[in-house]
Structures are given as C-alpha cells and as structure tokens.
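User: Design a sequence. Structure:
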C-alpha cells in the first residue's frame, strides 16, 4: 500500500505540473476526490493533457476504451492504481 501512496503523491504532482495548476499543492488534492466535475474541476482537454503526461512519465499505454478510461481517471487513487497495474504488466 505504501507504493500506491507514493504513486498518489507523484500523480498529484504530475497533475499540478502538466496542467499548470497554480496555487494548488499536492496536499490540497484529496486522493478520493473526483478529478472532473464538482471535484478538482478538470475537463476533457485536461484529461488529454494528463493522459499524455502519464504516458511520457510512466511509459504506459492508455487504450481507446472510453468507459474504462473514465474509471481510471476518476480519482488520483484510481489513476495511481492504474499506473501501478500497467507498470507491473
């Protein structure tokens, strides 16, 4: 579980850096808070940029399955788990 928590912090930093979110720190982002809509408030353009950043940072592939990706990109925790699983394959 420690690995997932460390990945969550990395993902939070990646979100902040890749999306140029000023005035937000990793501590401001709840790992279980929705990334889109009423949560962090990201939009579809942010999702594309974040997907590219994740692929570059971790060398993972993001498939074209929209429903599956919605689950992966739901929260920081789900993104961290996705990265962990993809890197373990």
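Assistant: Done.
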């Amino acid at each position: 579980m420690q690995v997932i928590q460390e990945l969550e912090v990395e993902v939070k930093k990646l979100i902040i850096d890749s999306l140029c979110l000023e005035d937000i720190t990793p501590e401001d982002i709840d790992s279980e808070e929705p990334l889109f809509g009423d949560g962090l408030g990201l939009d579809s353009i942010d999702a594309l940029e974040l997907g590219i950043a994740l692929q570059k940072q971790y060398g993972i592939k993001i498939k074209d399955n929209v429903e599956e990706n919605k689950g992966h990109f739901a929260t920081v925790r789900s993104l961290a788990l996705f990265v962990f699983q993809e890197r373990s394959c």
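The chain has a mean pLDDT of 94. The helical segments are 2-18, 44-58, 66-72, 76-88.
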